[in-house]
UniProtKB/TrEMBL annotation:
<feature type="transmembrane region" description="Helical">
    <location>
        <begin position="21"/>
        <end position="42"/>
    </location>
</feature>
<dbReference type="GO" id="GO:0005886">
    <property type="term" value="C:plasma membrane"/>
</dbReference>
<dbReference type="InterPro" id="IPR010432">
    <property type="entry name" value="RDD"/>
</dbReference>
<protein>
    <recommendedName>
        <fullName>RDD domain-containing protein</fullName>
    </recommendedName>
</protein>
<keyword id="KW-0812">Transmembrane</keyword>
<keyword id="KW-1133">Transmembrane helix</keyword>
<keyword id="KW-1003">Cell membrane</keyword>
<dbReference type="InterPro" id="IPR051791">
    <property type="entry name" value="Pra-immunoreactive"/>
</dbReference>
<dbReference type="Pfam" id="PF06271">
    <property type="entry name" value="RDD"/>
</dbReference>
<feature type="domain" description="RDD">
    <location>
        <begin position="18"/>
        <end position="142"/>
    </location>
</feature>
<feature type="transmembrane region" description="Helical">
    <location>
        <begin position="54"/>
        <end position="75"/>
    </location>
</feature>
<keyword id="KW-0472">Membrane</keyword>
<feature type="transmembrane region" description="Helical">
    <location>
        <begin position="110"/>
        <end position="130"/>
    </location>
</feature>
Length: 149
């Protein structure tokens, strides 16, 4: 974080809604590619002249769920950024001191993606727009902010 001349910490730039949307799309594309690889490895993916088809059975679905949780929890917990956030110049910080969230807070954020992601992230979008600190439900529960990197 930068500081003012008087030495007090500058307020983090929390107005990053457009960047958050684009970062979510980038992460979604990466996860979709990972899903296709898992489906390919399990023999349930194919590409034809008319398109691409991919599916996973129960084991593949559980594997994908675990990989998605690990992706968000590890990257946001330890680095403060997913690949999408890195590319868009934003990061997740602890609300209290601006530090990296840590795996516990990142896990809470990730768990609440199940609610925030409802209706193609409409819940998250509306919550970010109406909250004072531009937080989705996962941020509120984990006491985190998404700010410019």
């Amino acid at each position: 974080m930068t500081t003012h001349a008087a030495g007090s910490a500058a307020a983090p730039q929390i107005h990053v809604t457009g960047r958050r949307i684009l970062a979510t799309l980038v992460d979604g594309l990466l996860i979709a590619a990972l899903f296709f690889v898992v489906a390919l490895l399990s023999g349930d993916a194919s590409a034809t002249g008319s398109g691409v088809s991919a599916a996973t059975g129960p084991v593949g679905t559980l594997l994908m769920l675990a990989l998605v949780f690990l992706y968000y929890t590890l990257l946001e917990g330890y680095l403060g950024q997913t690949v999408g956030k890195m590319l868009l110049g934003i990061r997740v910080i602890r609300e209290s001191d601006g530090g990296r969230p840590g795996p516990r807070a990142a896990f809470i954020r990730t768990l609440l993606r199940l609610v925030d992601g409802f209706l193609w992230y409409l819940v998250a979008f509306v919550t970010v727009l109406i909250s004072d600190k531009n937080q989705r439900l996962g941020d509120m529960a984990a006491h985190t902010l998404v700010v410019r990197a």
